[in-house]
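Chain A, query sequence.
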Amino acid sequence: MTLATASAQVSGSLADRYDQDGYVILENVLDRSELDALLAETVRICRGELGEIDGAVPSSPADTDDEVIRRFLCVHYPHKLSDLMLATMRHPVVVDALTQVIGPNVKAMQSMLFVKAEGKPGQAWHQDEMFIPTRDRSLTAAWIALDDATVENGCLWVLPGSHRPGIIYPNREHDDPRYDCTVESYDFPYSDTDAVPVQLSAGSVLLFNGYLLHKSLPNTGRHGYRRALANHYMSAESLLPWTLPDEGTTMAQADFRDVVLVAGRDPYAYKGTEERRRPRIRPDREGGCDR
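Chain A, predicted structure.
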């Protein structure tokens, strides 16, 4: 698929659909060669060939690729290890869609590489805005399917329109074995019967708002993976108070500067950028929690 064809698919009413539902699907953004390259890069990352990952168990040359990647549920910040992952964060079709729903100036602040082999858990209902505090309602995720994402292997489920109130719902601990060690959102005016599964073909992208309630269930397939690359973006005009402010700085002034500009200009470029986060793993329930 050419860039022009892919762009035509996401033009027109994309912003209206995104505003209404809180998400939109970009079909067939990556072709087979791009997917194969990202899957090969996933193996290199999990083997530690591209740099150290905090919390990861070193692999042995005797381990098969399959044995290595099955140990992982999620690698945070793969774009800090891989030029290919960084380039994918800037994919022109995704960035074009982002400028339609966010604005002309867009920065990225996080990437996550999900592996999720069969038997691995999902994540309970949550809103990304709870964890990445933009508070300007511009937070947007681009969830790129590296394998076909199906109900059986643990695709995302969404509550359409749940972003519109602009409410950050409370979170609590949970002990549901279907989900990993993150907390769950509760006390929201929706039920599981309102949820919609988002099944994607490999290479397609789910773009969704940071206030949208979403979850995933375990991979119950008999064999195989549900690999995905999720990148988070926001308006470059807004401060990002993701970490506690430095001494003498108020929370309103705090600005997380471990960011990547993907479109337009950065009004805060005079501050420079800094490395504040390292690549790390997200443990599943078998590996313990990282709270």
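The first strand starts at residue 23 and ends at 26. Residues 1-12, 285-291 have pLDDT under 50 and may be disordered.
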